[in-house]
Amino acid sequence: MPKDQNRARGLKAAIHNPNVSDAAKAKDKAILEQEYGGDGSSSEGEKMPQNVKRGLKAAMHNPNVTDYGKKQARDKLAGMGEQPEEPVD
């Protein structure tokens, strides 16, 4: 991972850390806006669909997941246009 992404992540963490002073938070927020074109909050919460599908498929094969959880994973995969595998259990 490139160093600038690590730096941006560290600045975001400092902004949300309750142990960091308000002055330091303001400075870090200014750096994020100046060097990275914003506070970076727009990319937070976005999920990559391929990773979501991969996680749902993994849940379907995980023996520690309940039958109800596996059914939910299958339903979500179907909702994403993916043909879910039938359970082997």
Automatic annotation (TrEMBL):
GO terms for cellular component: cytoplasm. Signal peptide: none annotated. Pfam families: Con-6. Residues 1-89 are annotated as: Disordered. It comes from the Eukaryota. Residues 68-77 have a biased composition (Basic and acidic residues). This is Putative conidiation protein Con-6. It comes from Byssochlamys spectabilis. The lineage of its organism: Eukaryota, Fungi, Dikarya, Ascomycota, Pezizomycotina.
